[in-house]
Design brief:
Structural class of chain A: alpha/beta
Shape of chain A: elongated
Largest sheet of chain A: 6 strands, mixed
Pfam families (chains A, B): FLAD1_M, MoCF_biosynth
Distance between the termini of chain A: 32 Å
Oligomer: homodimer
CATH class of the largest domain in chain A: Alpha Beta
Helix content of chain A: 25-40%
Number of strands of chain A: 11
CATH topology of the largest domain in chain A: Molybdenum Cofactor Biosythetic Enzyme, Chain A
CATH superfamily of the largest domain in chain A: MoaB/Mog-like domain
Number of domains of chain A: 2
CATH architecture of the largest domain in chain A: 3-Layer(aba) Sandwich
Protein name (chains A, B): Competence/damage-inducible protein A
Number of helices of chain A: 10
Chain lengths: 236, 236
């Protein structure tokens, strides 16, 4: 199965100011495409950390996705970091500038120096479409660089997915059981042993002061998945 | 400033089935205690990955926090992985068993083999209190091992915080500006230059189809922070 990693770039996530919602959006889209998200790293807006993390991960997985730091302000340093990670130049590119210009009635006047930063693209990258606010993301090698704003991120994910080599989609099913995990663990382990090709997870949560458990089974083969689910449903 | 890293352990996060909410809870608690969360990694339920990640991070930061994988079921492997990472033994410990027993009217009958898994604690660890459902977390060296269930995780964070060496708390303030970032970027960069001790971030989001920007300033010194905020508020 093809693999992917995600790098969430942003002091605002690590300070707790902002709740990340992009990981789940990407994870679901990758799962539907048969690509396994094998790691997420959340890191600060720091050049050396970004460059090091990109270079560490791009050799380990088939696809790396970044979110955050590609806007027009002084703290948007991701595009420069990606260029540095790949050892290539970066400059305002005509195709990106033309896309940005469509946002303005009077581009000559409104496409100021700050906004033009969003047309700075590392050499050799291809653009990622941004139907929300035009400013494109880009793909360089196996690294897909996308905006952090959730609405824009989600659209860029949609834009990128068809370009990726997918695998057999992971199927999943689940059953909610109103018991504590302690009462289920023994029989659950036996079911897991009998179905080695099905990944079975147990996810408790607190509802009205008591524990309920969501049992999730995952497998690329529908028949194997259903065979496990038949047994899992009997735990309820 | 003391540093921390978090390891979110769980296939359910990486598959997109579950939205993580624990990162933000920990990030806020650490910030209030003057500890910087410098990295988060989300990794699968895989022994080698967990052991490797714990050992990579515990040498890099002052505190490592893990969430997930300490329940009674077959997929709860975190405690064993921590023992392996530190090269110590793990067994059912009397103090942890006694705490678990308080959950049951008839512990002799109800504290079954699966539930006793939650009393397996690596040698040398100290317990972390869990007022929600008793089953304790634990601290071994500088690694704090906590439950993934958000309600339990949040309580364990409360239990651990007073035991940590804190620093000067990071203060922050913000101003919401109903303009696009492109119009603000120039003056914002100048303000950032004039206040080098204040970290200034610009976080756009889409509201009613248009962009608004939240400008966030962070500093450990209240007077320096306010001096920057005076200028930032004039951007509105």
């Amino acid at each position: 199965m093809p693999t992917a990693a995600m790098i969430v770039i942003g002091d605002e996530i690590l300070s707790g100011r902002t709740q990340d919602v992009n990981v789940q959006v990407l994870a679901k889209a990758l799962g539907a495409r048969g690509i396994a998200l094998s790691e997420v790293r959340m890191i600060p807006d720091d050049v050396d950390t970004i460059v090091g993390t990109v270079n560490a991960l791009r050799g380990q997985v088939d696809n790396v996705f970044t979110s955050g730091g590609i806007g027009p302000t002084h703290d948007d340093i991701t595009a420069d970091c990606i260029a540095q990670a790949f050892g290539v130049g970066i400059s305002v590119r005509d195709d990106a500038r033309a896309i940005l210009a469509t946002n303005y009635v009077n581009p000559e006047r409104d496409l100021n120096e700050a906004r033009l930063r969003m047309a700075r693209i590392p050499d050799g990258a291809t653009l990622i479409d941004n139907p929300v606010s035009k400013a494109p993301g880009f793909t360089l090698g196996n690294v897909h660089v996308m905006a952090g704003v959730p609405k824009v991120f989600a659209c860029m994910v949609e834009s990128v997915m068809p370009t990726l080599t997918g695998g057999v989609p992971m199927l999943s099913d689940d059953v909610l059981i109103e018991k504590g995990e302690g009462a289920l663990a023994g029989p659950l382990a036996k079911i897991a042993c009998r179905h080695p090709d099905v990944s079975i997870g147990s996810y408790p949560r607190v509802v009205n002061g008591g524990f309920v458990v969501n049992i999730v089974a995952r497998c690329t083969d529908a028949a194997l998945l259903e065979a496990a689910m038949v047994e899992l449903r009997q735990l309820a």
